[in-house]
Amino acid sequence: MNRLKLIEEWIFKIISFIAAYSVVLILLYLLIVVFKKGISALSWEIVFSMPEGGYYFGGGGGILNAIVGSFYLSIGATVLAVIIGLPAALFINVQLIRLKRTQNTIRFFLDALWGIPSIVYGAFGFAAMLFLGLNASLLAGIITVALLITPILVRAFDEVLKTIPVELQEASFSLGSTRTETALKVLFKQGFAGFITALLLAFGRGIGDAASVLFTAGFTDNIPVTFDEPVATLPLSIFFQLSSPIEEVRQRAYAAAIVLTVIILIISVSARLLSKRYSKNSIK
Amino acid sequence: MKQMAFTYQPNLLSESVTMENQTEVAEMKKDSPIIEIKNLNVKTSEGKILKDINLKIPKNKIVVLLGPSGCGKTTLLKSLNRLTDLYKELKVSGQIIIDGQDIMKAGQNLAVMRQKMGLLSQRPFPLPASIYKNVAYGLKLKGIRSKKLISHSVETNLKRVGLWNEVKDRLKSPVTSLSIGQQQRLCLARGLAVKPAIILADEPTSALDPISTKIIENLFKELKQHYTIILVTHVLRQALRLADHVVFMYYGEIIEQGHPDEILKNPKTAILKKYLVDGN
Asked: Where is the secretion signal located (chain B) (predicted)?
């Protein structure tokens, strides 16, 4: 019996070891491929200059338009998603505290929305644009990406709030707080570190998504100055470059992919650092 | 808010309350609560948690709710400041009369009602803020904006719970820098700062070490001069040490109640006799 347990323990250890390390190895392999293919094309010029005429046919210049455009779009979408998402998450956890069934129904729908492929959001955004009479523009892209990341953000905020013990709410109520005061002065502060992580992860999802902006944001060699101008994004820039028959342009696509990967990496690391920094007041 | 023209600075050692304004004293006396619970029932879809509770709680005494785990002590305590409202599965009926007012009636100002009762949980739940802000929190909710008044109250209440000397140089530090025992005393100071009349304590020493437990118990003995304390515990010795009045509960019912010497040393019912021997 003891021997059997030891074997069982050993097998389980091996399986979990392989599973854990294969995830890391796949990620490393992916990074190596991207870096290997793109590093030769990566230069200051690509990162810091605008595309010159015929860039996608081997012309000079860089992808600054797409980098800045991606930031414009993702920051706009994240701000919009937070404006909707934070009150929604607080509402679910504070006002609906007695209505477990309603809470769970809302969570179910949000999870379903989370699972919808981003191309569907793109198509919906496109239909909504036609309805509202909007052109493919920064504004339309922001709205569509906000639709994509809002369910993610609400559920992420919601998960943060769910981890806060109900006794902390009780403590706040018993000091004479209303529900709103409890939400804003206690739950928001306690969850702040988690909110930062959730926010940056949603931002990362927004900046990396191509399908939702394919029909809605358009594409341009310029950096938009107003909301109704089209905007270039990094994922679409990579897509257009990879579709090129010219080898040199395809290599630049990998250079752009390195830029996107590094941005997302910086966002993930910042999320960890910021959440650590802001959790000093959180009750463990 | 109108600035109050009196100094309320209880000195626990000399057990004196200095008040310049006699009308305020009269006001406070008039407001002294005697809680009366009439036919209180709390049930869920699975059954009754509290069955026909009828109880009078005398003022300025320590009333201990004693009984095995799951007998409804905490539910009774949470009914008193209507924290049961947070749980939809709990259906509460009956009357709880505090200050002559039935708090179970609809249309109550729950925030004001709850400020009359400080709550101390099993584990300390300080707010996610600095030590100072924790004590100041309730005052700000009351509308007090004067920094001088707030600072004075923070100092007074931290002194009352014996925490001032330990934290006076780091009031801006996060509460997480305090030990569990210190956090529990901070929670008590936070509750006292809003000047409640009643302290609801739900096994407040169950997560504490013996030294911190002793500090809290001694504090309770001092505080009862000015407050009515309702203490939930299942530690028999604690009940004997602190209680002026013991209420023994079992499966949602009050089985016996009275002076600790009377009911813990000479139990009348078989259930209490068994509990005193076996602990359940």
From this structure: none
Q: Could you tell me the two tokens for A9?
A: 């323990």
For residue A189, what is the nearest residue in chain B, using CA coordinates? Answer: B128
> ipTM of the predicted structure?
0.79
Sheet arrangement for strand B245-250: B117-120, B198-202, B228-233, B62-66, B245-250, B253-258
Q: Is the pTM of this model over 0.90?
A: no
- CB contacts, 8 Å: A173 with chain B: 83, 86, 110, 114
B93 membership: H or E segment, kind and range = strand B91-98
**Is the Cβ of A2 closer than 8 Å to some Cβ of chain B?**
no
The architecture CATH gives domain A45-278: Orthogonal Bundle (1.10)
Which of B84, B86, B131 is the best residue to mutate to test the A interface, defined by the most A CB atoms within 10 Å of its own CB?
A: B86
Q: Does A145 touch chain B (CB under 8 A)?
A: no
> Residue B90 corresponds to which tokens in the numbers above?
């709990």
Per-residue pLDDT of chain B (280 residues; tens, 9 = 90+): 444 433 333 333 333 334 344 444 444 444 444 788 999 999 988 888 999 988 888 888 899 998 888 888 889 999 988 888 888 788 899 989 887 888 888 777 888 888 888 888 888 899 888 899 999 998 888 888 889 999 999 999 999 888 898 998 999 998 888 988 899 889 989 988 988 888 899 988 888 888 888 888 988 888 888 888 999 988 888 888 888 999 999 888 899 898 888 888 888 888 888 888 887 6
**Cβ distance A92 to A111 under 8 Å?**
no
